[in-house]
Amino acid sequence: QVQLVESGGGLVQAGGSLRLSCAASGRAFSNYAMGWFRQAPGKEREFVAAISLKGGTSHYAATVQGRFTISRDNAKNTVYLQMNSLKPEDTAVYYCAAAFDVTARSVSLMKGINYWGQGTQVTVSS
Fold first, then answer.
1. Count of beta carbons in the 10 Å neighbourhood of residue 29
2. Alpha carbons 88 and 84: distance in angstroms, whole number
3. CA 17, CA 29: separation in Å to the nearest integer?
4. 111-120 pLDDT, tens per residue?
5. 17, 42, 51: which is closest to 93 by C-alpha?
6. Are 68 and 50 contacting, i.e. CB atoms less than 8 angstroms apart?
7. What CA dihedral angle connects 99, 102, 103 and 106, to 10 degrees?
8. Is 109 exposed, middle or buried (0-12, 13-18, 19+ CB in 10 A)?
């Protein structure tokens, strides 16, 4: 069993930055590819970013490419999402996800996900 707890959300003005963290409990964090997804009101959950087991490969949605950076620290069982140049359309609940022994590409397609966090709200004002 793996529990994921997100933090770092909040209210920020357009153009600002936030860093989300997702702390994982349990063992073998390095056996899980990790991802970030988001869901805005009235919309389906969508992929944001994913990172491979050891952090060597990452994938991004086109809407965040060049503005967001995903990273992980396996020693701290934590995955991060650095969000820069935020836009009002980035407003959503952001969810962390863990997928056992799959590629970052699979996570980007929402395949093989075993665990979800509870989400953290990000609001970007114009």
1. 21
2. 12
3. 27
4. 999 999 999 9
5. 42
6. no
7. -70
8. middle
